[in-house]
Amino acid sequence: MSLYLALLGLDMAKPARIFGPRYVWLIPGVLVYFLAVWARTWRWHYMLGPLKPVPLGRLFPIVCIGYMGNNIYPARAGEIIRSYVLKRKEGISMSASLAYGHRQSACSMAW
């Protein structure tokens, strides 16, 4: 109710006209996003190497599934989803992949 009263007299179309969407940035943004996911896939590839070598082409969709889960579900559930998919597709135990996920988070914080 208070939000309604605060916005009652404002012209909400004016900011949309000034700061409207610029679709020209959509394609470079998506490319940069997937480049970053590819870099994280590369890192997972080398971290999982001692357990089982998984080719980058097979690992990329699994990493994407994990990040999708992090975007959709609460409490970083994508990490558990990624571990589950790794177990089903590649036979890597969930506990090992979860441990590597925590290690990757530590690497990300160090960068």
What is the fold's blueprint, element by element?
Layout lengths: L1 H5 L6 H6 L7 H23 L7 H17 L4 H14 L3 H17 L1
Structure notes:
The chain is an all-alpha fold. Helix content is 74%, strand content 0%. The chain contains six helices and no strands. Helix 3 (26-48) packs across helix 6 and helix 4 runs antiparallel to helix 5. The longest helix is centred in the middle third of the chain and has 23 residues, at 26-48. The chain is elongated. The N and C termini lie far apart (44 Å). The model has no long low-confidence stretch (mean pLDDT 88).
The share of residues in extended strands comes to under 5%
The helix/strand series, from N terminus to C terminus, equals HHHHHH
Gap from first CA to last CA: 44 Å
Please estimate the helix content.
over 70%
How many strands in all?
Answer: 0
User: From the alpha-carbon coordinates, what is the Rg to the nearest angstrom?
Assistant: 20 Å
